[in-house]
Structures are given as C-alpha cells and as structure tokens.
Write a structure and sequence with these properties.
The complex is a heterodimer of chains A (344) and B (128).
Chain A lengths: L5 E4 L3 H14 L5 E4 L2 H6 L7 E5 L5 H7 L10 E6 L8 E3 L6 H52 L5 H33 L5 E4 H11 L1 H7 L2 E3 L6 E4 L1 H18 L5 E8 L3 E7 L7 H4 L17 H12 L4 E5 L5 E8 L7
Parallel strand pairs in A: 1-2, 1-3, 3-4, 4-5, 7-9
Antiparallel strand pairs in A: 6-8, 9-10, 10-12, 11-12
Helix pairs in contact in A: 1-4, 4-5, 5-10, 6-8, 8-10
Chain B lengths: L1 E5 L3 H13 L3 E5 L2 H10 L4 E5 L1 E2 L2 E2 H11 L4 E5 L3 H10 L4 E4 L4 H17 L8
Parallel strand pairs in B: 1-2, 1-3, 3-6, 6-7
Antiparallel strand pairs in B: 4-5
Classes of the chains: A alpha/beta (344), B alpha/beta (128).
Chain lengths: 344, 128
Amino acid sequence: MTPPGILLVALPPTALELARQAAQAAFPQREVIVLPDLHAALQVPPASAPQLLVLGDPGLPVVAEASQVLEKTGLPRWAIVAMGAGESDVAETVPMAEWSPPLLARVFRATLLQHELLWENLRLRGDMKTVARRVSHDMRTPIGCIYTTADMLPELDAASLVELGGVIKQSAREISQIIDRVGFVLQASVDSALFSTVKMGPVVEQVLKDLDPAIKKAGAVVVPPVTWPEVIGVVSWLQVIWRDLLDNALQHGGPAPRITLTWERTADSCRFAVTDNGSGVSAGRLAALFGPFDQLHDIRESGIGLAIVHRLTSLQGGSCGYEKTPQGGACFHFTIPVIATGVN
Amino acid sequence: MNILIVDDKPNLVRVTAVALSTLGCQTFGATTSAAATQLLATERIDAVFLDLNLGGEDGLEYLSELTARSKIPVIIFTAHPKDEVVGKIWDRGAFGYLLKPFTVEDLRQQLAQIKQFHLTGKTPRSIP
C-alpha cells in the first residue's frame, strides 16, 4: 500500500498546474491524483492516514460538500485547501494573487499536518475512553471473582476453597492478559516502530508453537500453506495479529475445528486469511466486528482481540476484514504491505 | 431460596453460586439466555441474578423478556457505572442491582429484599 495520495479535484487548468507542482514539492513520495469531481474523489479508498484534497474557489458548493464527508470517527475525511478568492470556515484558502508553488506547498504541508494532529488527537482521546470505560469494565468481572471469593474465605469449606482457588488463578490470568494486550496495543500506537522485511513463515511458526496446548485442547487441526511470503512490518505486531485470529478460530470455530491458513499476493501487499469450518459470525454481530480500538467504549459487542488486530494492521499500512466461506465457516483476513509505506 | 444466576462468564457464575450457597440458597447457573429460559421452565426459581453482558446477547433485552413473562424478581449485576444502567434497568422492571465487584453482604441484602417481596409483595422501590 502506497502512502495516501494528494487529490486535486475539479481545478481549472492554471490552478491545476500550480497545485500539481506544489504537491510534488511538498510530498515527493505521494502520488498526485487529478480528479474531475468530488464523486471521483469519493471512489478513492480511505487511507490509513489522512489525505489532502485541493479544490477550487472556496465559495463553490463542492468545498462545503467535501467538508461534510466524514470518517467513522466523525472527523472530516480530507484536509481541504481551496484555491481562490474568498474565505472559508471549512478549508484553508489561498487567494489567487498569492499563488506560487512554494507558498502553496507550505499551505499544503501545514494543512495536512494540522489534520493529522486532529486525527491523532481524536484517536488518542478514543483510546483513553476505551481504557477508562471498556477495559475497566472488562476487568471488573475477574476482579469481582477474586474480590467476592476473598470476602467469603472464612466461610468456605475445603472443597469450595479448592474450587475457588482455581477461579482466582484463572481470573488473575485474565486480568494479566487484558493488561498485557491493552498495554501492548497502546505502546505500539505511540512508539515509532522499526519496520523491516519480515519472513512470515517463522512468525506463524512461533505463534503456532505458543498456541500448541490450546490447539491440542480444542482438538483442532491447523493447516498452514507450503510457503510463506515476506512483508514489511513489525515482527511482534504480526505475532499478535496471528495469535488473536488463531485464538478466535479456536474459540469460535466449533468442535475440533479445522483451521486453514492461506495467503495471496496482490499488487503491493499480501492478503492473509484464517479460515475455519465453524458456523461463521451471526448476522447480528457482523456490524461490530473489527470495531476500532478507539471506539470500543461505544461498541460493547466488539471484542478487544479483533480491535487490536484492526489497530496493528492499520499501523502497518494494511487492513483487515471478515467474510463467510461458501461452506458457512468464518474467514478473517488481513493485508500487510510488501513495499515500504511510510505509514506510522 | 432457589436462585438462577445468568452470566456469560462461568467463573462469575461459580463464585456467585458458592457465595449464595453459604447464605443458604440453592443455585442454578446459565451462561446464555436460552439455557436460563430452559431452567426457568423446569425449576422453581425464586429470583434471577442476571448480568447485562451476555456475550453476544443483550442482557437488557432478556431482562425485558423476563419481567414481561413473570413476576420473579430479577437482580441485575453489572460492571457498568451505576448512572449508565440504573435508569435503563428500572424501566425494564428490574428488582434491584449489584455493581461488580460485590461482597457476600451485598448478596445478603438483596436476598433479604427478595424474601420481603415474596412475603409482602413489596419491591425495594416501593419500600419507603
């Protein structure tokens, strides 16, 4: 996946040429995409980082229309620059008399940076809300098991002590896992990660080794492909993605699941899939699958595991999704770039 | 008293069952609404302790279903903050609620109110 392009939409010839030069100067690694209208801009897939949209006169209806296109987060999809006379509440404006590639390049950079900071700020606020509301909620049940057990210790007979000793151990493990996973994803979200070429084979091999007891307990059969590709990513993040998706298949893949791991190469990324022969995800739960981590506080039905997969694939410039197999099982898939993206 | 505990977390069902048994109750556990409905059909249940999060199911909907179907007191236990749930559960006819984590004493107080309800027909909110 390449970095998000710079979209030049419905610009008159003079403005278009200057905007093109400015965009290339401001963002040499990004593709400059010339589009005839907003409809065409809407067809460009949303990127994992903010995009810049350059339009004509700020008084044109298209500027207001573009500012109304929102992401799921509620933030405008694009950072918008309008080239023309007049002022705008929804776009940075550059009066025609001041048009020059260096000035425009500065405006483009500043506008996109401002939008990126808003994006980042909103995500961080969402992460904090998720920790404050969702994570604390999820920890209350195992904490409650320990707390209530401790409260009745003096009244317990030997058999109950043994039984609830097991509950305490499991609950403590559950709390520890929540802390580890949430800590990991928050750390990954704010750290500058070192992307490198990663051989996917050893990554999956290690995860399967770690999960071996759970695989045996579930009576599952895991079928990996004969060969694996190389991708550009972070080993520890990729391990978490695989672990979560395999865990998911072990838990929801039905009795003695057969779990198939596959991959295919697309233009600039690899698409990996974990497929099981269970009964798939019910229609009622589809909408909440892969709820972004920063919105989990409002999506109670969505699990933390898939939200972590969503965040970690996104941080690596990829995406994730779900589809039902023709046989009715579940297929969870994700993409990871095979060329450097400059994302994160 | 016979108490049905409904929570998608088996550990919480076990702990609550042991705690209620130390208070002299007989307990039944269910981790889904379907299993709970089955137990309600086959056992004499005096009260239901119901979690609001039942995995993929909505505990609030099940609460509405239970209170529409019978007068068995339903006590909600929840990990949500009190002000987020109280209005919603009263509207749906809950008898009471317990915030997680709870103590044996919290359970004892709920049982006292359930006993009073069975003796007098008064719910905690109708008691001045």
